[in-house]
Design a protein that fits this description.
iron (chains A, B); four-stranded antiparallel β-sheet; Double-stranded beta-helix; globular; seven-stranded mixed β-sheet; alpha+beta; NE0471 N-terminal domain-like; homodimer
């Protein structure tokens, strides 16, 4: 099934696999040994630092037997066995992304067409059925948002939603905040104004990467919620005008919020954030808290503002938006590094009372990955 | 003091200032108006989205009077007055960074020479004296770490340290974690092993950007703490070998922790993280939780591992490290996106009991900025 070949210096293993030939370096292989001297048996953490492996590490023998690849390393004189499937899954001898704006596996962009297919989880089911929770988290990860319905109608119910997947990120706004009309609002969110689609708290670094909004009362006219896929908007901008995408990705914006005593939050981050290899990993878009942009060179500023305007037009395009109304006992979760949310204006008649809080994607992704792993293990047993 | 000049199209204002001429674009100026129709009076948030400003905004008049610059915008027919000092402070008509690896204002790198000058705050003073707290936070921001001494010796005292500047980031490890020897450790931190200098939780995205470690018992031999400035290490690598710096900044590493039931934390981020304009904004370094690196192209992997090795050697160089011993009632705060921490091995005799927790830089920086602002306001009154 596998055959092995070493180069004369013992630096490169060429493994012939069912997927074609794959090359691996001696040092990479040695650093990724899973034997009990290299990795702690219980928790899988690496016991050795790279400096403890000889700098002149090379391979003197390699052999395949069934799915197992055995390699002998010098000067340690150490023999390590690898699973061929693991090597295929972790191979790096492959073409790499060359275009900016690509998206990771398990992410699908969307527009208003998602309206009839919004990820919805029933609170009781999510709470009791790991498969239902796993399926809903898969969708939340894929689309960057999801609704919860039939939840409790009680003060603090939103924390029970967070408990499904992670932990509350407390901020100066508290462990949670009340979204209802206030007389002297510290934030425009606490008025009846319509709000352009935005990501929350771009002035915070690290930004809260998950937001939960949960409805307790909803008899006022208007106030519908709306979400827009920021990754889809960024990619549409790139298709229309790659230079516009680049100018927003290549320069930092600045954001600020200093609307209350003792608070002065400031950040310097691009509106479109890319990994060094061009993956889109974040969007920050919020007209209310954009500070003076001072990190764009003079000769790029006109293009920057034109790109920022066009991105806003795309975000405001009804073809991009999914609109829904939250009823009491319903809430939604958004990936705040990706999905923008908005609400339509509402008037003083009747009441509208939402509670909101922040959380982070590490917990959400970890819960999803752990559920997927345990499902795979069950399937394998 | 100021003179103004408009280009024929009304797109560019050239302002002659005590600092020389500075150019500003019409759209930038209009978007940065601070009049009450543009910005909410109480909280300073922008009331208009860019789409609500005419795309053909231009200037028809500009005049200076003392420190005030008045501009008339068409087609709105709107007159806005700017403070000349604000324009100078926010000018973008200036040379931009061309070298990778620069550092922001208020950041100073350090090595073992900082040993005699570690930022130390007295807990009672930090709690009662805003000037002392501001001065300590300035140092913590500058160096990325600081000690607290003479604090309470009681379970949970570390939360009182966090309360000085921010909020606890709860994770799967809890609101805090106990650092003492365990029999079946879920994490190597909970053993007596020495640990190479590292940043915590690089497998988490967003990474917890502040860590607090606080000592409650300390009679075991060994177990000294050590900190290393990761920004200094990255810049030293860059001085020695720019290509080594680049290969670590240009490609994502992968980190993983799945050492306990229900947890599978994974991230894909570079070891050296740069803003798009080359500012160093983060370091992730942790041999224990580095997963298989699969995003480095085959022909770069050897160089990548050589750079990773050299960065580790620099981090392990005693010339880079500041060592101290925590006594009961003492703790330290580190910027976990920058400063690595380590501890020397310790033996079973006596006890060593620390508590640790995570927090975030947004709160720390906001508290520092708000204290600085109120000090400036007092000085101006």
């Amino acid at each position: 099934m596998f055959t092995t070949q070493l180069d004369p210096a013992g630096q490169v293993l060429t493994l012939t696999t069912p997927n074609g030939p794959l090359r691996f370096h001696a040092m990479w292989l040695r650093d990724n040994s899973w034997d009990p001297e290299t990795r702690a048996a219980g928790n899988g953490q690496r016991l050795l630092s790279l400096g403890e492996l000889p700098a002149d590490t090379h391979m003197t023998e390699a052999a395949a037997s069934g799915d197992q690849i055995t390699i002998r390393f010098a000067p340690e004189g150490k023999t390590v066995t690898y699973d061929g499937g693991w090597l295929i899954d972790n191979a790096y001898d492959r073409p790499t992304a060359t275009e900016r704006g690509w998206l990771g596996d398990g992410i699908s962009t969307w527009d208003s067409g998602l309206m009839g297919n919004v990820p919805i989880g029933d609170f009781a089911q999510l709470s009791s059925d790991p498969d239902a929770l796993g399926a809903w988290l898969e969708q939340v990860t894929r689309y960057g948002f999801g609704k919860v319905v039939n939840g409790p109608i009680e003060d603090g119910a939103l924390f029970k939603v967070v408990d499904l997947f992670g932990y509350v990120r407390e901020t100066n706004y508290g462990r949670h905040f009340e979204v209802r009309t206030e007389v002297n609002p510290t934030n425009l969110a606490f008025t009846g104004l319509g709000l352009q689609a935005h990501t929350d708290n771009p002035y915070r670094d690290p930004v809260p990467s998950v937001q939960v909004l949960y409805c307790l009362e909803s008899s006022a006219a208007g106030g519908e919620n709306m979400v827009v896929d920021g990754f889809a908007a960024a990619r549409r901008l790139r298709e229309e005008d790659p230079a516009a995408f680049d100018v927003l990705a290549n320069h930092c914006a600045r954001f600020e919020y200093a609307g209350e005593e003792g608070v002065c939050l400031q950040s310097r981050r691009p509106m479109i954030e890319l990994a060094p290899d061009g993956e889109i990993i974040g969007l920050r878009f919020n007209n209310r808290s954009l500070a003076a942009v001072t990190d764009v060179p003079f000769d790029q500023m006109q293009a920057y503002y034109a790109a920022y305007r066009r991105l806003g037009e795309i975000i405001d395009d009804p073809a991009m938006e999914v609109t829904f109304r939250l009823e009491p006992g319903e809430g939604f979760v958004v990936d705040n590094t990706r999905v923008l949310h908005a609400r339509k204006g509402y008037s003083g008649e009747g009441t509208r009372w939402l509670q909101g809080c922040y959380s982070d994607k590490d917990g959400l992704r970890s819960t999803f990955a752990a559920l997927s792993r345990s499902r795979r293990q069950e399937a394998a047993e």
